[in-house]
Amino acid sequence: MRLELGRYGVWLRARAVDADLARAVERLGYGTLWLGGVNGADLEDPESALAATDSLVVATGIVNIWSADAARTARSYQRLAERFPNRFQLGVGIGHPERTDVYASPYDTTVAYLDALAEHGVPTNRTVLAALGPRVLRLAGTRTAGAHPYLTTPAHTAGAREVLGAAPLLAPEQKVVVDTDPERARAIGRDYLAPYLALSNYTRMLRTLGFTDADFADGGSDALVDQLVLHGDAATVAAGLAAHLEAGADHVAIQPLTEPARSLAALAPLLGL
């Protein structure tokens, strides 16, 4: 049986999360805290967040397959699962070809990693896979609890649900800026998006949604930024988050790009938390 993540969670860089922020996420009613940038196999950051909270599910978004040995990751998973039963979700993914010196088939490497995790006792339903394209989405649906797409839109969510079918978990990440000044919010979004728009796996996926090279220039066109970084007042942002659920997501991982505690507090009542 897979973990219950809740309809909405929070995605934050692991280095930005301390005990107080983890407790605030739990107190506000978000079901899961996703920690990004967990590249090592020891899983110390999720362990600290779990220790600081009582019932919050903590997930990795993601452990990088290139940089975290599968056997060590599995041992760390077992440690956390024993200490915090039914509260840890292991998210793994291949990362980006531009950010590794290792050459191997990303798909075959992912399959081998999932094989190793299973061999070392990590339950399939306690693993999720970063997935964008159809082939890896299908792998996520058959070899893990489901998919955790990053930097996507409700249109991608709808397509991902079609590929996955009804049963597997679909938990996209969505960036937000709770700010009613559109130019200021877009500037924040562009600063954050610029490195991602130089990565081929994201631009390839975004092209399937109708975006072009012109949309990727200078940190992103208004049309691209407005979809990848929801902005406006809390009600407008909440409606954009709900669009992922309407498109077929089971859970939405919200990444506030500014003032996370304030932004999450403003959104929580509008999300039914």
Structural description of this entry:
The protein has helices spanning 19-28, 44-52, 70-83, 106-119, 134-143, 154-164, 182-193, 200-208, 213-216, 222-228, 234-246, 260-267; strands at residues 8-13, 32-36, 57-60, 63-64, 88-93, 127-129, 146-147, 169-170, 173-178, 229-232, 252-256. It is an alpha/beta fold and 273 residues long. It has one domain: Alpha-Beta Barrel (TIM Barrel), CATH 3.20.20. Strands 1, 2, 3, 4, 5, 6, 7, 8, 9, 10 and 11 form an 11-stranded parallel sheet that branches. Residues 20-114 form the Luciferase-like domain. This is TIGR03620 family F420-dependent LLM class oxidoreductase.
CATH architecture: Alpha-Beta Barrel
Number of domains: 1
CATH superfamily: Luciferase-like domain
Major sheet: 11 strands, parallel
Strand percentage: 15-25%
- As a percent range, the share of helical residues equals 40-55%
Q: Tell how many strands the DSSP assignment holds.
A: 11
Task: Specify the number of helices.
Answer: 12
Mean pLDDT: 96
Low-confidence spans: pLDDT under 50, at least 5 residues?
none
Summarize the structure.
With 273 residues, this protein is α/β, with parallel strands linked by helices. Helices cover 44% and strands 16% of the residues.
List the topology elements.
Blueprint: E1 8-13, H1 19-28, E2 32-36, H2 44-52, E3 57-60, E4 63-64, H3 70-83, E5 88-93, H4 106-119, E6 127-129, H5 134-143, E7 146-147, H6 154-164, E8 169-170, E9 173-178, H7 182-193, H8 200-208, H9 213-216, H10 222-228, E10 229-232, H11 234-246, E11 252-256, H12 260-267
Parallel strand pairs: 1-2, 1-11, 2-3, 3-5, 4-5, 5-6, 6-7, 7-8, 9-10, 9-11
Helix pairs in contact: 1-2, 1-12, 3-4, 6-11, 7-10
